[in-house]
Write a structure and sequence with these properties.
The chain is α+β, with helices and mostly antiparallel strands. The protein contains one helix and six strands, in the order ββββββα. It has one domain: PH-domain like, CATH 2.30.29.
């Protein structure tokens, strides 16, 4: 399932994530940093199978956006192995993990 980014940030809320029919638990979320390129990868444990990846050109930006009603949820523009584009809701159970995700992107693009 995919969702479109709303023009008005107030319309992007984690409450809309309940419309998703499928929830996948990814045990690995990687940042792949190469020079000035940043990619977020969602992989399954233990196989390491790549389910989606998101090339991040800027943060905040169109590839990774926060939602207006929670600091633990994001929307990412992800591509699967076939190149198909989907907008995925990404939520963290632990607030400190979402903080780390947010800060890692901020620090990378601040240094860029």
């Amino acid at each position: 399932m995919s969702i479109d980014f709303a023009q008005n940030k107030e319309e992007e809320k984690c409450g809309t994530f309940s419309a998703f029919q499928y929830i996948f638990l990814f045990n690995y979320l990687f940042f792949l940093l190469q020079g000035k390129d940043c990619t977020v990868r969602l992989e399954e444990k233990p196989s390491g199978k790549l389910h989606a990846q998101c090339a991040v050109d800027a943060y905040p930006g169109p590839s990774v956006q926060t939602v207006s009603d929670s600091s633990r949820y994001f929307v990412i523009r992800a591509a699967d192995d076939s190149g198909r584009i989907n907008f995925l809701g990404l939520g963290f159970a632990d607030r400190s993990d979402s903080f780390d995700f947010n800060v890692a992107l901020q620090v990378f693009f601040k240094k860029k």
